Amino acid sequence: MSIKSKHSFISIIVPTFNCGQKIADCLESLCAQNYRDFEVLVMDAQSSDATCQIVESFRERYPNIHLFSQRDKGIYDAMNKGIDVAGGEWLLFLGADDELHGTDVLSKISETLLQSPHDMIYGDVLLKGDTLFGKKDERYAGEFSREKIVKQNICHQSIFYSRRVFEILGKYRLDYPVNADWDINQQCLARLETRYVPQIIARFSPGGQSSQLVDRFYEKDRVLNSARYFKIGYLDKTFRGQGKAFYRISADHLLQRKYTKAAFFAFAAFYQSPAEVTRYVLSSISRIKKK
Question: Which among 160, 184, 214 is positioned nearest to 38, based on CA atoms?
């Protein structure tokens, strides 16, 4: 395990596990930057392939690449470990198969970071393949509002977090194995100062779990957390179109025999998405009858 640099303006954290066929392009895009005041922290979960050897080979070109190899409990645990050892004032998280978009990404964004009083500064990503939320070569996803962050997430590959974000909000929740970053991003928009810049930060590879899987643990909490973070009611227009989420919450309360809450969330479901929830209920009844 190598030792990180004493201080860099930006820390780029890259979780890895058996990424030998992917990590080189990511590191190449970092070493090619015309801005140098950054460190790269590769948080490896004790890969059994050539990942660590490839990372060490890049250190000859850029000594501020540091490798930490230890077991972890998944990608967000690795990211949390990266936060603990990062020396930068700003943090960016990349996947092993992501790349910065051009050699001047960090030099451009650094000017904004230096002058900014904000806690989170984000841009866009360019999709390298098809995903649940976009097609290959599309640009994702512009400026976010309260209504937008409830429905979709900001790619963390496009976000620069100030260190104080994690001091105020805490680190990534491990009980959200796929969408812990969505939870942090919602809190940032609700509680901290954020800024959007119309710049493509990274080329995002949709091969990771967050773009292919649904986090059933987070999905149950998503609208509940949103209401708490933004201090709004469940009938607020922010939740328009989120009827299915409320319907599932109602069903959970029904199973727990909490009938008053079940009735309220059933009402909220129909209020926010009357047509969609009606179709969903009729479809469920139809499936039950066929059994």
Answer: 160
